[in-house]
Amino acid sequence: MLEGKIFYKGSFIEAGIEIDNGRIKRIGKLVKGKKVQGIILPAGIDVHVHFRDFEEKRKETIETGSLSALHGGICLVVDQPNTKPPVDNEDIYFKRMEIAERKSYVDYSLNLALTKNNADRIEDVLRRISARYHLPAIGEVFLENKNKKLEVGYEELSKVKGIWRISVHAEDPSLVKSGFPNFLYRPKEAEIIAVRKCLDISNFHFCHLSTREAVEIVEKTASSFEVAPHHILLSTRDFERLGNLVNVNPPLRDKGDAEWLLKNFSRIKILTSDHAPHTIEDKESGSPGFPGVETMYPIFLRLAKLGIIDLRDLVEKIARNPAKLFGFSDYGEIEVGKFANFAVFDLKDVRKIKAEDLHSKCSWTPYEGFEAIFPKMVFIRGEEVLESRTRIGRTISSHFSSGKEI
Ligand code: NCD
Residue 44 pairs with which residues in a beta bridge? Predict the structure, then answer.
């Protein structure tokens, strides 16, 4: 039982929350409990993280990535399957889930990769996995990208059409070249054209859209999409500051694009970090990707405090919409019947981000010096887990009632 300033149905109320067996039983002014200082928001959900592990433990592990997520107010992540080796069959999928059961600080879910290795038996793989686990999506599907192991084409995509949500990294490979900095070699058109080609086949979940044009195309369809913080907060101008660290896929865009995304924040469906950690040495040889699972909620909460974005929008994009879109029906809102997953913030406690304070294995951040409001407490299924560093992360099984909405 706890009491405080709760974000409930789109505004704040002073009330108490009664928790029973990890779920919210009652919310009301008459409910008494331990007083919590600050504001109580739904804990975030990040449906696009790369926690590496397996053969890339030097970059990140499920343990360190999830600890970083926890410190960023995130209670549930969806990990991406472009691991080494990739998660494209049931054995690897189950192996990874077993690691998560033992090591994850936050609740954990995993997408399946569609690759040339599994394209001809994809329905069988899906059936075996979904008998045990809640599978949010097949993704991150690369469209004949440079990563040969994950190479699939538009034809393979159409085979799984309509069965599962398919999350696509939409950059047309024929328009993508390699070179540094990569924003000079991966033009906006690569994204816009890939989005159009996909929409000719079906509806998808589009990962990390980075251009105004792609957002404007996708929002008119039944497809969903996410935008990552770096495409809103950073631009090609940050090359001067970031130097060798600047590469990310899709690449940083011009200042005008980033400004448009910030100004139109309310139109974004889901905010995801695309947490893609690489060591400094790997960055120096051009590896694309930024860490971000720990800084996303804190930076955007600071923007909400400053009135640059609306707090209701933030909660919608970081908790409510990802829960709805990926079928995590027990998550995403402070509401009777849902899991008691909260992040507690003191809006007065604004801090400058320093890489050395973060918990990812990756020892740097593109947001060095940015102002942020980090959570003071995080509750997962009713248990305070941030201060206590309790590891209660769970994988999401298929018994879980899925209320997927497209
Ligand atoms: C991703 C990664 O490192 O896994 N990097 C990124 O910049 N988003 C893979 C990718 O999307 O290229």
Answer: 74
**pLDDT, position 122:** 84
Atom of ligand 1 nearest to the CA of 288: 7
Question: What domains lie within the chain, and their CATH numbers?
Answer: 43-332+364-371 (3.20.20.140)
Q: Is the CB of 289 under 6 A from ligand 1?
A: yes
Hey, what are 179's tokens? 């070179």
Query: Following CA atoms 79, 83, 87, 92 in sequence, which dihedral angle do they give, to the nearest 10 degrees?
Result: -100
Average pLDDT per block of 10 residues along the chain, 406 residues long: 95 97 96 94 98 98 98 98 94 98 98 86 89 88 55 68 75 90 97 91 92 98 97 98 98 98 98 98 96 99 98 98 95 98 98 98 97 98 94 86 44
CA-atom Rg of the chain in angstroms: 20
Ligand 1 center–CA 386 separation, angstroms: 28
Q: What 3-state DSSP class applies to 83?
A: coil
Please give the sequence-ordered ranges of beta strands (E in DSSP) within 131-247, or none if there are none: 138-143, 151-152, 166-169, 205-206, 224-227
**Residue-level pLDDT at 405:** 42
Task: Kindly name the residue from 53, 274, 310, 346 that is annotated as catalytic.
Answer: 274
Q: Distance between CA 21 and CA 105 in Å, rounded? A: 19
For ligand 1, atom 6, the nearest C-alpha belongs to 289
CA–centroid distance, 228 to ligand 1, in Å, is 12
pLDDT of res. 192: 97
Ligand 1 contact via 82 beta carbon (within 6 Å): yes
pLDDT of residue 154: 65
CA of 289 to the centre of ligand 1 (A): 5
Ligand 1 nearest-atom number relative to CA 228: 8
> Would you call 274 a catalytic residue per the annotation?
yes
What pLDDT is stored for residue 206 in this prediction? 95
